[in-house]
Amino acid sequence: MIRSFILALVIMLSGSVALASPGPDEIMEDPALETRAVELYNLLRCVVCQSQSLAHSNAGLAEDMRVVVRERLLLGDSNQQILDYMQTRYGDYVLLLPPVQANTLALWLMPFIVLIFGMVIAFVYVRKQSSKISDALSPEEESRLKKLMEDEGQL
Amino acid sequence: MGRLLPFLPLVLFAVMAVYFAMGLRENPNEIPSQLIDQELPEFVLEPIEGHEQGFSNADLLGQVSLLNVFGSWCPPCMTEHPMLMQISRSGEVPIYGIDWKDPPGVGFAWLERHGNPFQRVGDDEEGQLAIDLGVTGAPETFLIDQAGRVRYRHVGIITPEVWNDTLLPMIEELQAQ
Fold this sequence. Notes:
Helices cover 61% and strands 0% of the residues of chain A. By secondary structure, chain A is mainly alpha-helical. The relative contact order of chain A is 0.07.
């Protein structure tokens, strides 16, 4: 029972793994170039299905763009040259890692701003809570303490 | 400050809602073209199988023209086709076609069946020029000026509205220059 459950789970989970592209005929002969090609596929956005990288898209255009990446690699381009090549044609959109520049500053800085903001709020809150805890006893506590001590014969 | 603090999430929500509402008005498929006001990349396209002449970027010099990327495999291109035929018949502007990723002979058969609105058709079976032009899908249409520069790019179907409100006024203005 448990075994078949686990088996079913494994089958279901493995089904969600994209088994698509790049196809086996797309692997470069030189393993070093293949590693760089895969690296570049992961840095470039498929312009048809924009939330996927070239490494995960099986759109026709993504296939063509991978061909270009491989061609440029064989021509001896550096990784940066290939990214630039795509950027001059498709703009910043094609880069999955957006460059830091005026119009992307908010994008890059926002997580840090939110983090600092949250830390300030947390700090202020903790300070406020701790200031409420005072060492002095309230009148009720005083009287209770007094009674207890009397009972014990301390006073 | 302390009393206003509980309203902070609401304010943040309002700011984000306005921001995202603005984002909804944009079409995420329209990646801005990098070619606006730039010269077309140099290219020489072979004729499609069945035609005599292809064309190069030099053929577009000295006139205002439209450069249309299409494919027989593309349903929206079929929808757009009657509009291209109409523009072609009106004689307002010559249209050049780039047959994108069609196997040999297929683009020709498609044009035979539905009519050919193009002055000339170039074959981009490999899709190399499409990438150089930053094409993200078909149909896509570039407005080219006399100097061979891209002045406008339209993504998607040229509807009568797009033609009347956007393309035709720009074409007339460029032709007057």
